[in-house]
Amino acid sequence: MKYGFFDDIRREYVIDTPRTPLPWINYLGSEGFFTLLSNTGGGYSFYRDARLRRLTRYRYNNCPLDQEGFHLYIKDGEMVWNPGWQPTQTELDFYQCRHGLGYTVITGKKSGISVVQELFVPEKDNCLLMRVTIENTGNEGKNIMLFPYVEFCLWDAMEDGSNFQRNYSTGEVEVSGSAIYHKTEYRERRNHYAVFWANREPEGFDTSRERFIGVYGSPARPEAVFGDGCTGSIAHGWQPIAAQEFHIHLTPGKTDQLIFGLGYIENAEDEKWESPGIVNKRPALQMMERYRNSESIDRELAALKAYWNALLSHYTLRCADEKLSRMVNIWNQYQCMVTFNMSRSASYFESGMGRGMGFRDSCQDILGFVHMIPGRARERILDIAATQFPDGSAYHQYQPLTKKGNSDIGSGFNDDPLWLIAAVDAYLRETGDLKILDEAVPFDNNEQNKATLMEHLRRSFRYTASHLGPHRLPLIGRADWNDCLNLNCFSAHPGESFQTSGPSEGAVAESVFIGGMFVLYGGRYADICRSRGLSEEAEKTEECIREVREAVLRDGWDGEWFRRAYDAFGQVVGGKACSEGQIFIEPQGMCVMAGIGVESGEAAKALRSVEERLDTKYGIVLLQPAYTQYRLELGEITSYPPGYKENAGIFCHNNPWIVCAESILGHGERAYQVYRRTAPAYLEDISDIHRTEPYVYSQMIAGKDAPTFGEAKNSWLTGTAAWTFVSISQAILGIKPTLNGLKVSPCIPKNMIEYTVTRKYRGAVYLVTVQNPEGKETGVKEILVNGEAFSDGNILPVFPEGSIVNVTVTM
Ligand code: BGC
Ligand code: NOJ
Asked: What is the pTM of this model?
C-alpha cells in the first residue's frame, strides 16, 4: 500500500494522506539552522546542535504523537482545523504534503478555504520561513481567524526535559511589533535569543502556554483558539510560546498571504542590550526585513533550488529504471547530505540529546557526501581528526557546537582510527588535494600538540598494527563497527552503558571485521604513502597488512565463511560451532571488499553462505541464528529480542558492503538484487509494512525472526545512505574515483543494456555511456574517449577544468 507518490520532475515525494504509518519527515536547512518537519507540520528547530541550542520543543514519545511543531490553526465560524491535519485532526476536504529538497509544502482545504504552508530554511540565514497562502475557493465571503503556534525550548534540550525545578522559573520573553522574542537565560550567560515573527501586525498574541493552550488543554484543543482568542499573555517562567491571532476577510476567489519566521540571533557581548533589560533587536529586525514580501520568498526558494541543482549535478544517471534513477539522482544523495549534517544526532528516533557527531559515523558519511561539496568534507575531516588521541585512538563522539571529544563515552572503539583513513582516502580520490595531508591538526583538540594530517593517518594505522591479539588479529576494544558486540564489557546492571562498562581494552578479544578493515584501509594508506613518495613506508605497511591478511585466513576463516571475532575467553564468535550467532554479515562484506580470499576461493564461499543463510526478501539479516538469551560475554547485541537491531535485524548499513563485495567477484545480478531489496523506492508499495518514509533508508528493518518482519525503524540517520550511494554509484554503475583519475568498471545485471552517468570530477564533466549489448555482468571490452579508442586500461585521466569528456564504454 502507498501513501503518496514520487514526483521526479519536481524532485518531491508527495504524500496524499496525513495518516501515514508514522510521521514522514523532511530536513530543512543545510549548515547552521535546521528544522525537522513532518508531513503534518510536526517537528522542531535548532541551531547547529540539537542538544545545546534547541529552539523549539519536541516530545518524542508523546501520545498523541507528533503534535509539537509549526502548526497553524484556522478558525472558520465554530470550526477549527489545521491545513496539515494535526493537531486538531479535523477531517480535511483535501490534504497534500510535498517534501522537496530543503523545503516542504503542506496544503489543506476545508469548506471553501484553501491554505498552503510553504516551509524552508534559506540557504544563508539562520531562520525557518513559512509563507502561508489562504484562498477563498467558495462562493461566499469568509471571515476566518488564523493562529500560528510554536512552543519554545529553553535551549539545552536535556535540561529542558528534566530540570523542571529551575526551568519553570527562568522563561522570559519580549513582545514588540509583530514579533515575539524568546530570551530565556539571555540575562545571564547566553548571548542568543530566538524570535518568531509575522510580516504583519497580529490582532492578538500569547506567549504563555497556559494561557494559549490552557493548563489542562492540549495542542489539539487550544483554549484561546476554541474560546475567545489570544489573551496577550507574557510568559514569566513556565512554558514560553509564540502564538498569534490574525483576522482575515476574503471575498470569493480572493487570496491573502502572510510570511512567518522563526529566527536565531546571536549578539556580541557588548551589544546584547538595547536598554537595560531590553534585548538588542537590530539583527532580528534586519532578518525580518529580508523576508518582508513574497518576492523575497520566491527569490530564496529559487536560490535553494539552484543550490540543490548544483549539488546533484555531480552525479546523475540516465537509465530505463525510474526507481533506480530517482534513488541515485535525488533521494540517496539528499539523504547523504542530511547524514553528513546530522551524523546520528537528531531525527524522530535520535533525540539529539544523546549523541553528538560519531567518529566512525561521520567518517563514513563523507564517503557518500564528498563529491557534492568537497570543501565541507575537508573541513569535517580536520574537525574529526582533531578529536584523535596522540596514540591514534579516538574519541568515539564529539559535540558539533564545541567540536570537543565527548568524555562520557571516551575512546576504545577499535575500528574508529581506520575510518579516518577511509574518509581521507575518499576525499583524496575525489579531489586529488594532497595538500590536506600537510595540514597541522591537533590531537585531542590540544593546540599545543599538533601534527600533520598525514601523521594522524600514520597513527591510525599504527594503532591497529600495534593492538593485535593472540591470533594476530586486531583487538576489538569496547566494540568495532557493531556497537553492540561488547566483548570486554560484561555489563550486568540495568541502565549501565553496554559499551563503557568494563575494561576498554581487553588483551584477548579480537575482531575479524577490523582485520578486514585493516587490510582494506591499510592498503589505501599504503597508496597514500606512495603518492607522497614514501615507498619504504608503503612497503612496511604492506608487510603488516600481509600478516593480518594471513591471520584472517588462518584463524578468521571458519570453513564456509569468515568468523566474526574471538571473545575475551578466546572463544569463536560467528562460527559453525556456536549455538547461536554462527554467521555474521559484517566480516563477509568487509573481508571480501578487502580482497581477502578472492583468489583462493574463500571470498566466493563466504558470499554464497551469506546468500544461503542470511538472505530474506527484505534484505540480508545481520546474523543467524538470532541470540535468544542475554549473554554477558557478548553484550548489547544479545539484549535485543531476536530479529531486531543488531540481533539479526536487517541492519541496512552492511547490505551495501555485500553489494560492493559481490561486485569484486563480478556478480552483477546478485549485487543488484541485494541493492534493490533495501532501496526505499522499491519498497514504496509495501509502505504499510515498511512504515518509514519510502524516500530514505532506515537504519533497520525487522528481520525474519521478528514478529514484525519487514517493519523499518530509525529512518534517515544511518550510514546506509553513504554506503548505498557508494555501492550503486561506484560498485554497480562502476564510476569510481581513484587517486589518479576516474575508473570505469561496471558490474550490472545482464538486462541493463545501456545507461549514462554524468559525473563532474575535479572540474571536468565526464559523460559516460555504458553499452552492454551482449548482456554481460562485468568486464569492459572497449572505451572510446571523445570518439577515440582509449587503450590505457580503464582509469580515465584527469582532464583540465571545464573540459567535457565524452566516454563510451562497451562491455
Ligand atoms: C544501538 C546501536 C548504536 C549504539 C550507539 C545501540 O543501542 O543498537 O545501533 O550504534 O546504541 O551507542
Ligand atoms: C549505529 C551507530 O551509529 C553506528 O556507529 C554503528 O556502527 C551501528 N549502529 C552498528 O552498531
From this structure: 0.98
